[in-house]
Write a structure and sequence with these properties.
CATH architecture of the largest domain: Alpha-Beta Barrel
Distance between the termini: 58 Å
CATH class of the largest domain: Alpha Beta
Number of strands: 21
Helix content: 25-40%
Number of domains: 3
Structural class: alpha/beta
Length: about 600
């Protein structure tokens, strides 16, 4: 495939390489502090690309800054301009929402929306013109690297934009047609004519087997509309034979893997040609742009065999490119604090890490739903289920909310109707202390540091950081501020930004909070005390981290290592000494948190 010129803007030549910038690739994925951003909603650095080079109304260009479902104008140049703001929170990695060229607008008449989010890809080799150019993206990667920050790309292998259509099924909404009633050996169902003789099914991914899959009309009769025969790049993606073509997924049973994701063309990832094609596509982004990792969308909707081929190929490509710690983490969407479901993808599918939905569910349970702190303890007990166990869990990206489920503040407000703004801010701030101090690689969802509280999930959780024109965004007051999204929000004095920045600085100074082993200490079946110890990976020094998840002050004893004698306050007010070997009495205000460094007793010094 041919990429556009990667010549860098002259301005980057002036960026000096700091010592931190030169060592960023030596950091392992454990404990990176990540900032996740959708480029369209962050900063508009170049208004000339707002319409992506297209002409016409919003249904042609996709641009309508007053509509929450269309492009608003944010771009890569805007991201570059705000890198210092992002780094100011202690961020060490930037996760950028998909930047590939998308189908500008899709959806039935009257229900159209735009590909501003990046998940409707037509050209996997080119940056979407609404965001800029390939050269501009390379400039972003280099500018981040010059600041010691890694860049993670958000990628998709499950589907493409909705281009392929079916000649039947419109009346029932292209209902999913399963493999039992619509086998590969018949055209249009059990009573149809025989097709694809000798094809042994999708469980055999050998080239010889898939060479026998000639006719893709086993369920529906797929076709590419006139004028869109070459809409996708690379060109092999335009062949309907490389898609499942079974209609819309119900997100249950086999349809979760073989169905179209709300109409998006579902790739036949069991086919070795599809596997080789996707490997070639994404290897080029590593080779030519030097990105440091991939967040992989819709991971649970793809067959395990694909990932067992794809992931090692990406790791090897990165190794040859001189990227020793290329991070790959999958989105396995699953609400709730149980780690078992998401952990299977690290064992069966070969994922090095997955987004830690269990962490999100546990924090929401204790701070939104009023559950006891034992929920957190039980969730961390599940760390042994991941491939690599508790050590691997240090690299799990933890998060509080996101662009799909909604913001954490929104979820807590839904869980606790009538909550005051003050209490909501207290709960959200404690959630961020948990995020930044407990094991894992914390992910800050853009806007959370400015107190964004959306109306719901999906489009309602994707507000603009620059001055917005969306009425349903602008009627929400920001948490911890008297501002709204009607004005730009890049304030370093916002209480949540300052909190995250303070904790980011603490993480930078104390490796125990980044890559330290974690041991759960104290918890209960009711809201109140939750405490853990983390240990410096080099010296073994103990750090006690404790939280009060209740709305009343508490005085409670926590377990601590028997070698601890005194405590230094790093965050919050810690007691000066232990109550007895192995026990410390903590006084914590409502929703209070402390981070304490334990000083060893004389008989334990040097041990």
């Amino acid at each position: 495939m041919i990429f556009r010129s990667l010549a860098l803007p002259v301005l980057l030549a002036a960026i000096p390489l700091s010592a931190q910038a030169q060592e960023y690739r030596e950091r392992t994925p454990a404990g990176e502090t990540v900032y996740f951003v959708l480029p369209d909603r962050f900063e508009n650095g170049d208004p000339k690309n707002d319409r992506g080079g297209l002409k016409g109304d919003r249904l042609k260009t996709g641009f309508d800054p007053a509509s929450k479902g269309f492009y608003h104008g944010g771009d890569i140049k805007g991201l570059i301009a705000r890198l210092d703001y992002i780094k100011g929170m202690g961020t060490t990695a930037l996760w950028v929402g998909p930047v590939f060229k998308n189908k500008p607008v899709q959806g039935p008449k009257g229900q159209e929306s735009a590909g501003y989010h990046g998940y409707w890809i037509t050209d996997f080799t080119q940056v979407d013109p609404h965001f800029g150019t390939n050269a501009g993206f390379k400039a972003l990667v280099d500018a981040a690297h010059a600041r010691g920050m890694k860049v993670y790309m958000d990628i998709i292998a499950n589907h493409t934009a909705d281009v392929i259509e079916y000649r039947e099924g419109a009346a029932d909404g292209y209902k999913y047609r399963g493999r039992a009633d619509y086998p590969y050996s018949r055209s249009g169902g059990l009573a149809g004519k025989p097709i694809n003789p000798g094809f042994a099914g999708d469980e055999d991914s050998s080239p010889a087997n898939f060479a026998r899959l000639i006719d893709p009309s086993f369920a529906y009769t797929p076709y590419v509309p006139k004028g869109e025969e070459h809409a996708k790049v690379p060109d092999w993606l335009n062949d309907p034979a490389f898609y499942h073509n079974r209609g819309n997924s119900t997100f249950t049973g086999e349809s979760s893997r073989f169905g179209d994701f709300v109409g998006l063309d579902d790739l036949f990832t069991e086919n070795p040609k599809v596997r080789d094609g996707m490997i070639a596509i994404y290897a080029k982004w590593i080779e030519d742009f030097g990105v440091d990792g991939f967040r992989i969308d819709t991971a649970r909707h793809v067959d395990p065999g694909f990932w067992r081929a794809f992931i090692p190929a990406m790791q090897e490509t990165a190794r040859k490119r001189g990227i020793p710690h290329f991070h790959i983490f999958g989105e396995v969407a699953h609400e709730g604090p149980d780690a078992g479901y998401i952990a299977q993808y690290t064992r069966r599918d070969g994922y090095p890490a997955v987004l830690d939905f269990a962490f999100q569910g546990a924090v929401r349970a204790v701070l939104g739903q009023g559950k006891g702190t034992s929920v957190l303890a039980e969730m961390f007990d599940g760390d042994v289920l991941y491939e690599g166990g508790e050590v691997a869990a240090l690299a799990l990206p933890t998060f509080l909310g996101n662009h799909d489920m909604g913001r954490f503040a929104t979820l807590v407000r839904q869980d606790r109707p009538g909550i005051t703004d003050k209490e909501l801010l207290d709960r959200v701030m404690q959630a961020h202390v948990m995020l930044m101090t407990l094991r894992g690689s914390p992910v800050i969802y853009y806007g959370d540091e400015q107190g964004f509280v959306g109306d719901g999930n999906d489009q309602d959780a994707r507000e603009d950081m620059f001055a917005s024109k969306v009425a349903t965004y602008n009627d929400n007051h920001l948490l911890g501020s008297d501002r709204t999204t009607a004005t730009e929000n890049f304030r370093a004095d916002h209480p949540l930004y300052r909190l995250i920045a303070a904790l980011g600085a603490l993480r930078a100074k104390h490796p125990a909070l980044v890559a330290g082993r974690q041991v759960v200490r104290s918890y209960s079946e009711a809201p109140g005390l939750f405490s853990v110890s983390r240990f410096d990976p080099a010296t073994g020094a103990e750090y006690l981290i404790a939280f009060n998840t209740s709305d009343q002050p508490i005085r409670a004893a926590s377990v601590i290592g028997t070698g601890a004698a005194g405590l230094q306050s790093l965050f919050g007010a810690c007691p000066a000494s232990v109550s007895a070997p192995g026990s410390v009495m903590l006084d914590l205000p409502a929703f209070g948190s402390v981070v304490c460094r334990a000083d060893p007793s004389p008989e334990h010094q040097g041990s």
